[in-house]
Structure prediction request, 229 residues.
Amino acid sequence: MVAQISAAELQSIPFFKDLDLSLLESLLERHRLADLSAAETLIMQSDWGENLMVLLSGIAKVRLFSADGDEVVLSLLGAGDLIGELSLLDGDSRSADVVTLTPVRLLKLQGGPFLRLLQQQPLLALRLARLEAGRLRDINRRFAIQKSDATTRVLDALAYLAVKGSLERDPLHPIPVLAQGEIAILAGLARETLSRTLSKLRSRAIVIEAGEGWRLATLQPLQRRGLLP
Prediction:
C-alpha cells in the first residue's frame, strides 16, 4: 500500500495552516511520501527541479563547498520546512545541496499546483516571504558569529540543532546524535577544537547527557552571548 498524507494532516503544518481543505487537496495531487536515512542527498546544487518538498520530520543541512573544497553549512532545515521553493519561484537551478543529517520523512509535491495556489492565496505568499526573510536572517546571524570564540560557536551550533529537531523550536530540546565532524562543520571549527570545547562544556554541566546524545542544561550561556532573540 502506498503511503499518503491527507489534506487535514497537511493543514497541521504551520505553513499550510488555515487554508481550506479543498485547496490543500489540489496541492496533494500526485504527492509522494519518502522515508530516508541520514547522509542522503535530497537536492544537488545546479540540478533542475520542478517539485517542492516538505520536511515532515528529521533534520537536513543546506550546504555549499568553498573554492578550497571545504564544506560550508548555510542553514539547517527541520520539521515543517520547505525545500526547493526558490527554483520554483525563479525557474533557475538549485542553489545548494540539501543533505539529510538524521533519518527524515519527506513529502514531495508537484510544483505546478503549489504555484497556482500561491497566486490565489495572499496569505500563503506572505508566509513564503516571511520564510525566506527568516532564512536570510538565519544566514546573516550565523555569518556574524564566525569570528566569535569557539565556545560561542559550539553553543550556537548545539542550540541550532536542538531548535531544528523540536516542533516547539526549543533550544533545550535533546540534540540529535551526530558525528562530531558534522557538528564541527556546522560550528565552523576543526574537529579537535570542537572536541575540546564540548569536553569543557560537559565538565561545567552546560551540556548534559540526554539518552544517547546531549542537550543544553540552561539558556543562560546562550543569553549571555546574545544567541537568543
